[in-house]
Amino acid sequence: MSELKPCPFCGGEVVEGMTETVGVFAYECKRCKAITIYPEGGITDGKWNTRAHAEEIEEIDFLEVIESELCGGTVTALEKALGLIKEKIAALRGKEGK
Hints:
By secondary structure, the protein is α+β, with helices and mostly antiparallel strands.
């Protein structure tokens, strides 16, 4: 088994093992006590060590802003959302040119 990455929430040491619930495998942070459970054998440390890329997180954050603007339902909210979309398109086109 390879070394587990630290907790994505606090950076603490993560331990793995079976929980008291029969057949449930877990990764738990020793510091903040965050826990992720999986059916026995349902995950490997390779998956635990996988993290979202910063660009993916940025895209999710952007889409959440758009969603909240669109949920406003007013013309002003829709215009603001459209403006944000246009800005994002321009920024992405700028990255392509680099």
